[in-house]
Amino acid sequence: MIDDPLVKQLLTSIVEDESNLPIVQALNDGIETDEEIANETGIKLNIVRKILYRLYDMGIASYKRSKDPETQWFTYSWKFEKEEIINRIIKDSEKYLDMLNEELERESNNMFFICPQGHVRLDFDEASDYEFLCPACGEELEFQDNTETIEQIKEDIKMVESNFKSFTEKNK
After folding, report:
1. Which of 4, 5, 127, 154 could serve as 122's disulfide partner, Cβ 3.0–4.6 Å?
2. What is the pLDDT of residue 1?
3. Quick check: helix, strand or coil at residue 152?
4. Left, alpha or beta for 17 (phi > 0: left; psi -120 to 50: alpha)?
């Protein structure tokens, strides 16, 4: 599961660096304690703990605390929450698709004007409010053909939908 591109992208954003992904892999493989994970991965114990708590804060890991009867020390047994990863990716993908569709609608339903100096990009209504002059420098705004932008958004939507479909089929 961790090799799936969407899962890897999400986990990398949480653990800050791809070099910390073995911590998640060890957790996924059933290694439960922070010390065992540190020994297995060769990553410093304090980094392992930091990553485990970050995963916990995101709901992707959970733990149970138990007390050793001899030493009276607490032991934390960690568990990887696969369902939470799946739910998070579904939620994030749906949110991103909504944002792309809104952006596509805005780009498709508006004409845009830009400052030749690159100060602003305004839709028709905004540009007319400024009498088609840049509010920053006073230069006359130029019409911008946004056909390429629209096509790029459509491609992005196709890619996200394809990745999402592939992910949901693998994780049913």
Report:
1. 127
2. 72
3. helix
4. beta
Please tell me the pTM assigned to this model: 0.71
Cβ–Cβ under 8 Å, residues 126 and 110: no
* Closest CA relative to residue 149, chosen from 109, 95, 96, 119: 109
Structure tokens at 53: 């708590």
Specify the pairing of strand 112-114 against strand 142-144: antiparallel
Low-confidence ranges of the chain (pLDDT < 70): 172
Whole-angstrom distance, CA of residue 137 vs CA of residue 54: 46
**Residue 128 CA to its chain's centroid (Å):** 37
Q: What is the pLDDT of residue 78?
A: 94
Q: Tell how many helices (H) and how many strands (E) occur in the chain.
A: 7, 5
Rounded CA separation 41/63 (Å): 19
Edge-to-edge strands of the sheet including 112-114? 121-123, 112-114, 142-144
